[in-house]
Design goal:
The longest helix has 32 residues. This protein is 80% helix and 0% strand. Helix 1 crosses helix 2 and helix 3 packs antiparallel against helix 4.
Length: 108
């Protein structure tokens, strides 16, 4: 399979996620610029802290004037909750994969 075809298949595979990520980016970006961050700072926040709802928590804490150590500590304890949900979803999909005889599309 050619590299171009693999890239095209990868782009098609990620497209459904992009439908959700683009509005999320607008939401977090507008919230970050609303509290006084520049566009570059809000972009940097998304690059440094790419963690879903933890981004909104961090921006809200930034708006409240909380210190960096408190933000980091809160994010540190908040992220395992997201990881727990991800792992539990993966475990469910793995069981479905095995129960369906190892079919490639059993987990989708």
């Amino acid at each position: 399979m050619s590299i171009k075809r693999q890239i095209w298949q990868g782009a098609l595979a990620i497209f459904p996620l992009s439908i959700a990520v683009i509005p999320w980016g607008f939401l977090v970006g507008s919230f970050a610029t609303d509290i006084g961050l520049t566009v570059i700072e809000s972009q940097a926040l998304s690059v440094i802290l790419f963690a879903g709802s933890a981004q909104l928590v961090a921006v809200g804490m930034f708006k409240a004037g909380v210190g960096l150590s408190t933000m980091l500590l809160t994010t540190f304890f908040y992220l395992p909750l997201d990881i727990f949900f991800i792992v539990s979803q993966c475990a469910t999909r793995s069981v479905l994969f095995l129960l369906n005889g190892g079919s490639r599309w059993a987990s989708y």
